[in-house]
Structures are given as structure tokens and as C-alpha cells.
Amino acid sequence: MSDDVETGAVGGEVVLVRWGEIFLKGDNRGFFERALVDRATRALSRSAGARVVKTHGRLVVWPGEAGARRAVRALERVFGISSVSPARVVARDVAVISAAAVELARAEAPRHARPTFKVESRRSDKRFPTGSMELSRTVGAAVVGALTLPVDVHNPAFTIGVEIGFEHAFVFAEVVPGPGGLPVGVTGRVELLLSGGIDSPVAGWLMMKRGCALGATYFHSFPYTGEKTEDKVARLAAQLAAWQLEPLRLTIVPFTDAQKQLRDLSGDGKLAVVLYRRAMLRVAERIAARAGAAAPATAEALAQVASQTLENLAVIGAAATLPVLRPCLGHDKLETIALAQRIGTYETSIEPYDDCCSLFVPDHPETRAKLATVTNLESRLDITAMTDDLASRAVTRICPP
Ligand code: ATP
Ligand code: MG
């Protein structure tokens, strides 16, 4: 990485990378931008010869042998990126830029029923003698002259972008959205409670989107949940690792004995899930502390199931000393499913699996747990010893992308 230098050849293709919110971060801007460069570089680590260069308000990615298309695919997974454009690299000369714009417009126009267009210009190098407005007008006139396409500045079918860099100019017609958010790692680390379901991988993705690095903890109730379920959770962790752009540590906690004790404690079973969740949070906090994570995260969504009423969430959360992050809280199930499909975890999540918390649970669980009732039940067990024991028997798997 180097600043304000766009070393590379004219005539090739680059990918221009834009970011959004990082701009807002005042004095921390340099830190966020360096993190973005680091993440983009990681995303491209398998592309021989790829280089990431930070210029004024942009990253310029020289894609190396794999080419701009592959680079775009890789960069679509980098949190912090708002959009990318594969762009032609040309000389900083208005006639040359215009010729490239004509070529792009010629290729783009047939894709639209009413191929209206506009040109939008931006100068990273403000010393460039032609102003942005004038540049757009001149390049636009060249396109009109060559192709007789109508200009529509308000609602064009496509836009030709021109950017004046410090050494080269860039011309593009395509803007591909990125995932947005913040580069992974800039806001800290969280410990995701990852089950084999649809929701928790989505919760992990949403935390990563807000700049959190992830570790994950899975509570395994062998033999009620089989080895296949553990394997499935590990594959989900690997899918999240592909978004994190580094291996994800999955901690597997053997939960069966504790679960049976908690089930027996709950008598008729109505409070069983609340007791399980509280036990899970306590253990997840231990693992979070070991991993330097600031908070546990779950995929609980308000009122989605009986254990997720406002009252039950309060009683569950009271077992934790750290804030419990619940990024899916306001989601409808269908929104979570749509996101799972988009991020690529859905197909794995819907493979048949055993949910440990549906074990030993009655049809009508308590929806209004009282903290006093629950703590009173728990006082019959040595909860600290249970937490210590579960944390000490946990095993770790590293799940690479
Ligand atoms: P998911 O699809 O992630 O299972 P859900 O909406 O089905 O979510 P529940 O199964 O009620 O929710 O569980 C609530 C949350 O508790 C989960 O989203 C997950 O974060 C956590 N959780 C549940 N079971 C486990 C488990 N076996 N291991 C780790 N975390 C779990
Ligand atoms: Mg579930």
C-alpha cells in the first residue's frame, strides 16, 4: 500500500473502491482507512499481483492476473466498502477520456430499452485544469456526437463515471454495491452464540458488518444432537470466516449433562429454555473473556418464539454481566431468511439438524418468566461450578474460510 500513487499501466482495468461511513469518523479516519486497505488486501490475497492503493477518498485496486471481474467478486465481501466499479485506466487527457467514454457507452446502450445517459466527473487531483462540470459536459458531448444518445441528467438509464487521479484517469459505467458497514475489527470483538439454525449466522454477519471480529460458541448436546450437527455448525462458521476474511475460532461446549440438570431443575419444563439460555450466556462470557471479546451476541428476535418475549429476554439477559447484543431483534423471520440467502448460509442452515433446545421442552413454555423464580430455582444448583466445568471442557476448532 502507498498513498496518492497509482502506479500501474495505462490501458488496463482497475477496480475503484468507495466507502461511506468511514468518512464520518473524524480523527479516527486514518485508522478506519488503514483497516479497509488491510481487509481489501486480504480479500485479494489469492489474486497474484493484485495491489491496493489508497488515493484521495478512494482505493484503487490493480487486480493483477485474475482481472477486474474476479477482484469485484472478492471486494463484494469486504465490509466498509459501499460500492466498487471496474474502470478503464486512461491518460489524463480529455480527448482520450472522451474516446474511452464513447466506447463504454457503445457497449452499455444496448442493455437499456431507452438508453439515456449522463456523465459524472470527479477530480481527486484538483490541479487538473478542466473542472468537473466542464469535463462532464465535454465528455457527454463526445458521446452524443458519436452515438446520438440522449442525455438525461435527472433520470439516466446509465451513467458514465470519470475520475481524475494523480497519474491516470479512470472511466467506468458500472457501480456494484458493496456490503457497507465498517471494516471487520475496528469496533472490537464479540462472541457469537452460534447454533445450527437460520438466524445465528445472520446475527454474526450483522455484527461483522458493524466492524466486529467474531469468535463463536456452540453448545453441543451429544448424543441428542449428533456429530452431523457439530459439523454443520463448523461449516456455518467457515462461511462466516469467508466474510471475516480470516479463520473463525469455534468453541464447542459439551452441554448434555448441564442441560439435563437444568431440565430436571425446571420441574414441568416450562422454564427449561430460559435456564438453558442463561447457562449458555454465562459460559459464553467466560469464553469471551478468554478471547478478549467485549460482549456475547445472539440471534434472538423479539417475540419470534416463546423464549423471546420481552419478559424472557430480560430474565435471560440478567444472567450476563456484559451487554447481550441482539442484532436480529427487530427482524421479521422473512427478513432474516432473505439475509441468510444473500450471505450464503441459508442452504446450510436448512439442512436437517437437531436443535438442542427443543429437547425435553413442553409444548407451552413459560412466556413471562420471573427473575426471582428463576434465580430461586438456580440456587438449588452450584451454578458457578457448572459454568466453570462447561468452560473447562470446551474444545476449540479453527474454521478457515
Ligand atoms: P437460530 O436460528 O440461530 O437457532 P432461533 O431464532 O432459532 O435462532 P433459538 O433457537 O430460540 O433462536 O435460540 C436463540 C439464540 O440462542 C440463537 O439465535 C443462538 O444465538 C443461541 N443458541 C440457541 N441454541 C444454541 C446452541 N446450541 N449453541 C449456541 N447458541 C445457541
Ligand atoms: Mg434455533
- Basic shape: elongated
> Which compounds are bound in this model?
adenosine-5'-triphosphate, magnesium ion
Number of helices: 13
Low-confidence regions: 1-5
Mean pLDDT metric: 93
Helix content: 25-40%
Distance between the termini: 24 Å
Report on the biggest sheet.
8 strands, mixed
Rg to the nearest angstrom?
26 Å
Q: What string, H for helix and E for strand, traces the elements in order? A: EHEEHEHEHEEEEHEHEHHEHHHHHE
Quickly give the structural class. alpha/beta
Please indicate the percent range of residues in DSSP E strands (runs of 2 or more): 15-25%
Q: Give the strand tally.
A: 13
Q: What attributes does this structure have?
A:
13 helices; alpha/beta; eight-stranded mixed beta sheet; binds adenosine-5'-triphosphate; 13 strands; binds magnesium ion
What would you say this structure looks like, in words?
- The chain is of the alpha/beta class and 401 residues long.
- The protein contains 13 helices and 13 strands.
- The longest helix has 20 residues, at 272-291.
- Residues 1-5 have low confidence and may be disordered.
- The structure holds adenosine-5'-triphosphate and magnesium ion.
- Adenosine-5'-triphosphate is lined by residues 193-195, 197-200, 217-219, 280, 298-300, 304-305, 307, 355-357.
- Adenosine-5'-triphosphate (ATP) binds next to helix 5 and strand 10.
